[in-house]
Write a structure and sequence with these properties.
The chain is α+β, with helices and mostly antiparallel strands. It contains 10 helices and 32 strands.
């Protein structure tokens, strides 16, 4: 059967006697819709000449611009067409794209970017133009080894992605023969506290000792840091790997190693030990220190990868000691940021005393925290003295909690009343279906509303808010199937109780553009005072002798 949502358009305004919550946004940027919250109030309108961008022959965008000799393109569509996974930090206006070991980080208004953690100068800074974030195409293309051709008379740009053949692809690393394997270094008990300052090193010396022992973790939808425990095992924060299905350990030289699984973890302590899939080298381990030696005012050094800038070194002092929910924290003035999680905090002997874990963003004070290495002793005890091949792992994907099938309808069906069915289903949805659960993020829903059409169809609808819809778009390639099966489980549950009813459900987003939003279907666009209102349904469930589901961006 075909889904028919045409009546949504007809009944968007003035549903019969119902109070329908209309979350109409009077001034909303396309950047907020597509990547989240970019301030475009001062942005200038683009030139009249727009270029089409083709990636491997397929149209990716119709809105590229050649400005001051540099080609800039809308980042989202072009990155997706090139096969990147993308993330957007609305607070810092930072775009992060990842594909096959390549990570690109760009920030609106900043004329420098980062390629695999290394700073690069850009020809022009990314900017927000007419509600869209534009990035320099040349930098992105060269980072991926693409061939870029500009057809000025034809107003077209062609991007040819590099072809990796099986004969030229780099071979998989050969595992080290078993005879060369050595036991994991023993790290307990902690050294006896001495409080002696005679052996203090400089920040540079601490860095030289530990820089190569701290790595960056590139997960499917997150990025963090970790410290080497030797022989392919790395200690990090649990929240860095939580909800992830795969990831890589990346050394300072850019070498990447696939994570084989989790050797030990404690979610309550926010600590985990990950193990690489293949033993290919003799990794050097950090030296474990005793946090009890630390006192307020003592100098400490942190090494991590904040915002993907690999192995950034920062220094500060111990500010305080605290314990919350059974976790021992070292409060530090050392600057850390998103991506620093899982990095190492070292004393001035060059010993690991903590795992950098958290900070309070909305504060002028340096309120940053590291989990004391004392809390990791139980986890470390599970690997001490053991051989690499003898350490079993838990697959990353198995740590993702299984979402139970949604059963929104718990009331018996009324005898012959479509109106009673509408009331029962709507009430059950509002009681039990308040979000869309995924492995990446839980998307919050609004209130479920409903009415009965003239032809007896129960129409049920839900308007998702601005923030959650842009999050849905950001993660759509990852969560598309999860959202589909979530919707299917709801449809199946309702159909099992009311198989003789016709019910159409839709989740939508509504907003107003000040210019014509050509990216949307004309049937979704209504001219209004001051702009164009778009009512866009991106998920639907149709129940009519069976269950059909539709999910789209």
């Amino acid at each position: 059967m075909n889904l028919d949502f045409t009546y949504w358009k007809k009944h968007t305004d003035g549903w019969r006697g119902l109070t329908v919550r209309k979350f109409i946004i009077s001034i909303i940027s396309l950047a907020l819709l597509l990547m989240g919250g970019v301030n475009v109030s001062a942005a200038a309108a683009p030139p009249q000449t727009m270029y089409k961008v083709y990636v491997d022959g397929a149209l990716a965008s119709s809105n590229a611009i050649i400005k001051n000799g540099s080609t800039i393109v809308p980042f989202k569509n072009v990155f997706l067409a090139m096969g990147f996974m993308i993330q957007y930090d609305a607070k810092t206006r930072t775009v992060r794209a990842k594909k096959a070991g390549t990570t690109i980080t760009l920030t609106v208004g900043v004329k420098r970017g980062f390629l695999n953690g290394k700073m690069k100068t850009l020809p022009v800074a990314p900017e927000a133009i007419n509600n869209t974030t534009y990035i320099p195409l040349r930098f992105v293309g060269e980072s991926m080894g693409c061939i870029i051709e500009v057809d000025t008379p034809g107003h077209a740009i062609y991007i040819d992605l590099p072809v990796v053949s099986e004969t030229t692809a780099a071979p998989e690393p050969t595992p080290v023969p078993a005879a060369e394997l050595t036991p994991i270094p023993t790290t307990e008990p902690l050294p006896t506290a001495s409080n002696s300052s005679s052996t203090e090193l400089t920040t540079k010396q601490v860095t030289v000792i530990n820089d190569k022992k701290v790595v960056m973790l590139e997960m499917v939808d997150s990025q963090g840091s970790a410290v080497s425990l030797g022989q392919g095992l790395f200690l990090t924060n649990y929240h860095v790997i939580d909800g992830q299905t795969s990831g890589n350990v990346i050394e300072t030289n850019g070498t990447s190693y696939l994570i084989g699984g989790v050797a030990a973890y404690n979610e309550s302590l926010d600590l985990a030990i990950v193990k690489v899939q293949n033993y290919t080298k003799a990794w050097e381990a950090v030296q474990i220190g005793n946090p009890d030696e630390l006192e307020k005012g003592d100098r400490v050094v942190a090494i991590g990868s904040p915002r993907g800038v690999q192995n950034t070194v920062s220094e500060g002092v111990v500010s305080n000691f605290t314990k919350q929910d059974g976790v021992n924290y070292i409060q530090i003035s050392v600057p850390i940021d998103h991506g620093s999680s899982g990095g190492g905090l070292f004393n001035m002997k060059g010993e690991l005393v903590g795992i950098t874990s958290a900070g309070i963003d909305d504060s002028n004070a340096d309120l940053n925290f590291a989990i004391s290495i004392k809390d990791a002793q139980v986890l470390l005890g599970k690997i001490n003295g053991r051989m690499f091949n003898d350490i079993a792992v838990t697959p990353l994907a198995s740590l993702i909690p299984t979402q139970p099938a949604v059963q929104p309808v718990t009331h018996p069906a009324p005898s012959d009343s479509t109106e009673q069915t509408r009331v029962i289903v709507t009430q059950a949805l509002n009681e039990t279906v308040t979000q869309i659960p995924t492995s990446v993020v839980n998307l919050q829903l609004g209130e479920w509303e409903s009415f009965v059409t003239n032809d007896g169809v129960i129409a049920i609808f839900n308007q998702m808010g601005t923030y959650d819809y842009k999050t849905y778009l950001d993660y759509y390639p990852t969560i598309q199937n999860q959202v589909y099966y979530w919707a299917k489980s709801i449809g199946d549950a309702i159909y099992s109780h009311f198989p003789d009813k016709k019910i159409s459900m839709g989740i939508y987003f509504e907003f107003t553009f000040n210019t014509y939003p050509s990216a949307f279907d004309p049937s979704e666009i209504t001219p209004v005072a001051g702009g164009y209102k778009v009512t866009h349904f991106f998920a639907g469930i149709n129940i009519d002798g069976g269950v059909d589901v539709f999910v789209r961006p």
